Amino acid sequence: MPGAYGELALPRWAWWAVMVVNVAITGFFVFGAFYPAGSAHWTAAFAALACGWLALTIHLYIQVIHRPRGRRDVMSIEPSRQAPALVLTASRRLTAWMTITASVWALALATFAVIADGGWGAFWAVCAGFAALGVASQALALKPRSVRLTSAGIEAVTNGASAAVAWDDIQVMTWQQVREGLMGIRVTPRSGAASWHAKPHRPWSRRDRRFLEIDLMPLDVDPLLVAHALFAYWKDPAARHELDSGTIPRRFTDPTTATVDSHGRHIVIPSHTYRFEAMDAREGTLPTA
């Protein structure tokens, strides 16, 4: 299952074509930097563009082309006196590369500011300043990420915040676009819920104080299986006892088990913006095997 919202715009083969075009553009900038020999300013400008475009190309691959492979080593059981917890350890790959990409472009824009004359130099300097703010914002989110599930509730450290809420205190759970252009789960707690705790990684962020957004792709587990599991535990209290077993529930590895709750009823994920790759006539559901 694709994890990026951008995949809605084009089929997968078209994104590979975009990758090829971006590589060609990067090559053009490299060619412009070193041949034919020109002024030092042109060489610096083309070299900066080549580095920036290469960073964007790699970022495109990580965000859109790369797919999680369902690694079992990112799932573990955390023992506890109260109840065991299933911990899904997320990768910081995307956030780290976004920080690198922003840094490369900040340096590229700073290069333009140095070599440009007059008002253009000031313009590129302002752009470089905004890019530097983007670097700082992404750096604040470079924290170890994880999703911790127990029969009582959910705790998560995501790109936006560290938050926790009890299953019974969740008012709405939706599958939609979240941060970084990814598809994920937005958890909205009930107003005044005692179990709701949130600490945004960016102090100025208001959205992270109101709900929890879990981007599924960095978990390196099939995003569709995780989405079905979260909806099952929210809607079906009996299914939560799977998390007390001390073992990884089958619904995180077996598509057949993932699509039904503890009573054998089909789990429906409302979706108005995205259709699964292998799906029957019902919106937002997978056919059972």
SSE topology:
Layout: H1 12-34, H2 40-65, E1 75-78, E2 85-90, H3 93-115, H4 118-140, E3 145-149, E4 153-157, E5 161-166, E6 170-177, E7 183-189, E8 197-200, H5 207-210, E9 212-215, H6 223-235, H7 255-258
Antiparallel strand pairs: 1-2, 2-3, 3-4, 4-5, 5-8, 6-7, 7-9
Helix pairs in contact: 1-2, 2-3, 3-4
Short description:
With 289 residues, the protein is an alpha+beta fold.
Describe the structure.
The protein has 289 residues and is an alpha+beta fold. It has a domain at 5-67 and 93-140. Helices cover 40% and strands 17% of the residues. The protein is built from seven helices and nine strands. The chain has a six-stranded antiparallel sheet. Strands 6-7-9 form a three-stranded antiparallel sheet. α1 packs antiparallel against α2 (40-65), α2 (40-65) packs antiparallel against α3 (93-115) and α3 packs antiparallel against α4 (118-140). Residues 272-289 have low confidence and may be disordered.
